[in-house]
Amino acid sequence: MTEADHRRNDARLQEWRNRTIVPMVAAASVFLAAYAWPIIDPDLPAVWEGVCSAALVVVWALFCADYVVRLWLAPQRVAFVRRNWFDLLVLLVPVLRTLRLVQVIVVLGLVNKRATMTMRASVSKYSVAAALLIVFCAALAVLDAERGVPGAVIHTFPDALWWAATTVTTVGYGDLYPVTAEGRLVAGVLFTAGIALLGVVTATLASWFVEKFNEGQESAAATQKQMVELMEEVRSLRAELAARTAPAEPAAEEADPGR
Amino acid sequence: MTEADHRRNDARLQEWRNRTIVPMVAAASVFLAAYAWPIIDPDLPAVWEGVCSAALVVVWALFCADYVVRLWLAPQRVAFVRRNWFDLLVLLVPVLRTLRLVQVIVVLGLVNKRATMTMRASVSKYSVAAALLIVFCAALAVLDAERGVPGAVIHTFPDALWWAATTVTTVGYGDLYPVTAEGRLVAGVLFTAGIALLGVVTATLASWFVEKFNEGQESAAATQKQMVELMEEVRSLRAELAARTAPAEPAAEEADPGR
Amino acid sequence: MTEADHRRNDARLQEWRNRTIVPMVAAASVFLAAYAWPIIDPDLPAVWEGVCSAALVVVWALFCADYVVRLWLAPQRVAFVRRNWFDLLVLLVPVLRTLRLVQVIVVLGLVNKRATMTMRASVSKYSVAAALLIVFCAALAVLDAERGVPGAVIHTFPDALWWAATTVTTVGYGDLYPVTAEGRLVAGVLFTAGIALLGVVTATLASWFVEKFNEGQESAAATQKQMVELMEEVRSLRAELAARTAPAEPAAEEADPGR
Amino acid sequence: MTEADHRRNDARLQEWRNRTIVPMVAAASVFLAAYAWPIIDPDLPAVWEGVCSAALVVVWALFCADYVVRLWLAPQRVAFVRRNWFDLLVLLVPVLRTLRLVQVIVVLGLVNKRATMTMRASVSKYSVAAALLIVFCAALAVLDAERGVPGAVIHTFPDALWWAATTVTTVGYGDLYPVTAEGRLVAGVLFTAGIALLGVVTATLASWFVEKFNEGQESAAATQKQMVELMEEVRSLRAELAARTAPAEPAAEEADPGR
């Protein structure tokens, strides 16, 4: 495979991504709804429960297809698999429903990816959105795992939401807590999300305060502007000097290559 | 509506804000007192309770009036509503007493707004004040929501304050916790405030340490000063050159426009 | 009082501080020991308990004397009282033993004050020391407040230490927690210390990473060095120009004042 | 001992370190396995338990030998002991098994030391790895300390892992908590690790955001580049000036030393 092919495929992979973002997010939303409904409303008629599970399977198939296509388009397949190990994990292990929900978030995340790289405001917005989504999904997943388990203390969706909120903020009252392995796995994801969230909030504020409060930052920017001015100043100084004395001396030409 | 109108209205909106800050803060304080008193002292004579509820209604009306005036003065009404969705939410949903208390805080916040943008010290002072106020209001709101509810564990104001303190710092012992939906909503506001507070404290320290400890910052400031000097140096250099050789050559004039 | 008096008094206040640091820290240590011993060892013979309380009174008197002297030396007395409100509070309200212990820490803090302002390492060392001391004092204070109270869960010093550690780190298991007002006041001080500690740790790391990782910082420092070089370059350029053309033209002299 | 000896020994110490990293990490892994196995599987045949304890002793001996060699190679022995007090503590006090496990982590840490100093990504990777390892070791240690103790609530390895996770993230539900002194000591290490971890996560993000978002940083870098350009510009300006006027005047030569 030549270097040119690599570049072309990379471009095609990118193009595929851009085209599939909207449908993927749509599919993810369907997935979320189909996952949430039976959990929130336990006495859902069997018919609708069937519809939901069907929807889950379909969306899952879509995600798989998307993965396969991206793998096929990827310039270096091995590198692609290593870089996207998380996608694969979530797709192959059907037990990890909770992680598949995180996958949903990742997909939604893709949308803002580029934005987050450029502006502080969008980082904040994206983090808040992600946090809310993670809390909601975690509440669903933990309820799904704990409900009806003997010794479990989380039995209703409001309780699950409350637990998720106390967990992601690392408050952890301990009035509610998961007792099953799945529930604790979900909690683990929530802890991590919580620490990351705390980090993003603080870091965004810090970078903002550094810009607002630290002289160094302002003067650096000011210096930058003056630098351009000064450059012109010096250049035109040379221009004048040349204009004045060039005709008189060929020495100037000899000096030129030295520049 | 012309551009000029826009600018004039914007100025009028600003002026209105500046003029109303003092009365608004006064109204907010009355609101706080009228809200706090009946909660802290449960066996308050019915007469006084009536007075308090009346005061709450009056202040609420004032807030509404203020909102309407600002909306009317706003250059772009739609943008104004979108930007101030929180004010509207707090005004329209009378159930959200707790959020109206947060609104009180926001109003108080307006006072320091400009200050906070300029100095580190005022950011800290403002955050501490806001944190204390939020803790106090949250304690009131949670007590109001939990007291007398079967299964609730928060029954006295000292307990409510203690709970609020353990919550805003994300310690969350779990000896006390809300069980009602309203109480948990208040807790949610407290969590968020707690994370924000932690972020502000850390970020303020970070920006301060960066300034104090990092060479880059100092040299940037120093460079800035020298830059000005250098600029003069070069300019007077040109001046001299001109002074010496200008009379001899018209070439200088031709060079001028090139600058 | 003239400006000169002000300056002289300020100098004398500073000198007093420098001279009294060592004895004050010694007194504080005595205070800490005399406070800790009867609490850690409940069945201490009455004689020794008497000695300890006597020591506490003596040290308290010393602190008062120190405050009075400093007040007397202060250039502006009112400003001094306002600036040192915390010292006064701790001295005047004999109930607030816990805060007097925090006062001990403040005194110890004075020692490193100057150091902390200059280096990152000393900030870290000072914070760690302060944190350990606060945890130790808080454990003593909470045990003193809770022991023997009906319904209290903290009865032994190891338990108190464990509680203090879980609190200052904002973990807050909730297996142990204060139930008395004094105990909760101590906890409040610990929360605050915990958040501050977290902030200092993170901020120190952040300022260090910013220096280590961010190009901006290095280039700012590098620019600073080159700036000096460039300045010389330009100056000697002017020198040469002058050297070459000065004798010929008086115009140079006229240009001088313009610089 | 001459300066030259010092330098030679320092080099030899470094060389020893580089050579022993791989075997030390291997030994540490064996240690970890031999420590973990009997704890995770309580009904391990006595034979294997014996093998494990033997392995622990052997590895411990290796660590001691390594320490002695490094001490012997160190240029200043006293300084070496003071700088490596932690290693010594962990080696000499055989009770502190938990700390010896932390020592394992320190050894593993050595591998990335140099990397961490240079890149943000490696700091993150190293911290995550360290965090996971600390959580795993802490779970082992706490289980070892608590299992079979009357009144203890941590009896199985999954519970211990869950407890460690809730602790390192400072969530601290309080459904599980250590009751023995050893268990609480382990918890103390975990708290500290948790705060440090939180600090590293936030600080890394902060330094990254400062670089990405703050104008000051970019302009400082940009200025740096232009500075070099400008320098050349001015130098060649001098060159020209010299080239033009040097032959005419000996004054130039006199001016030279002044540069």
Automatic annotation (TrEMBL), chains A, B, C, D:
Transmembrane region(s): 21-40, 46-73, 123-143, 152-173, 185-210
Compartment list: Membrane
SUPFAM superfamilies found in the cross-reference section: Voltage-gated potassium channels
Pfam families: Ion_trans_2 (PF07885)
GO biological process annotation, one example: action potential
Start and end residues of each Potassium channel domain: 133-210
Entry's Gene Ontology molecular function annotations: voltage-gated potassium channel activity
GO CC aspect terms: voltage-gated potassium channel complex
Its membrane topology: Multi-pass membrane protein
Main localization (coarse): membrane
Record keywords: Ion channel, Ion transport, Membrane, Transmembrane, Transmembrane helix, Transport
UniProt protein name: Ion transporter
